[in-house]
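**Sequence with structure:**
===
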Amino acid sequence: MKKAHQLFAVCALLAASTGVFAQNQPPVAPLQNVAQLSASAAVEVQQDLLSIAMTTTRDGSDAATVQNQLKAALEAALAEARKTAQPGQMDVRTGNFSLYPRYGKDGKINGWQGSTEMVLEGRDFARITAAAGKVQTLSLGNVGFALSREARARVEGDAQAQAIEGFKAKASEIARGFGFSGYTLREVAINANDQGPIRPRMMAMEAKSAMSDSAIPVEAGKSTVMVNVSGSVQMK
């Protein structure tokens, strides 16, 4: 019991000390002559990554047969595409592979359907389109364009520099407008985003006999990289 009284006394003393300390602290003065502002800059750049998805479907009464047909078509396509694959320039990977039952009016399974996909992607547009044109077991699905990480970083640096200069110019203008000679930076936040990460261009699926071995025509779009600088300044 004695220890409990001692502990209570210590807690009471600490609480009292804290209250006295808080009372002795000078009140925090409200912020004065602080302006909040933001500035943005956008840089448009040509997309430099191409992605072509090639697909095929199979239908049959036996699941194993359909699966083996899809597997054979995909393996043949991969073998052809790998002949000209080059890291970064044309990478080859598999995409979706699905197999699901088909139901009749009586609710029972009366067949199986499946699809498989191969994706060619990279920076060498000519290599990729030529490889796609030579694949005989898959058909063209869709074409998409994007901006590479390296290109985005390079352009983002330009946009950031422009946004910072815009922020500084706006801060000086606001300070002068309020009758101050200048400003000091209090806090700042920088955010970047890509207004056009992927601009897909869908292309109709064609029969392989019509495509022959010719390269598939493609045309890349553009992405806009935007950087926003926001924060507060102390006018003086």
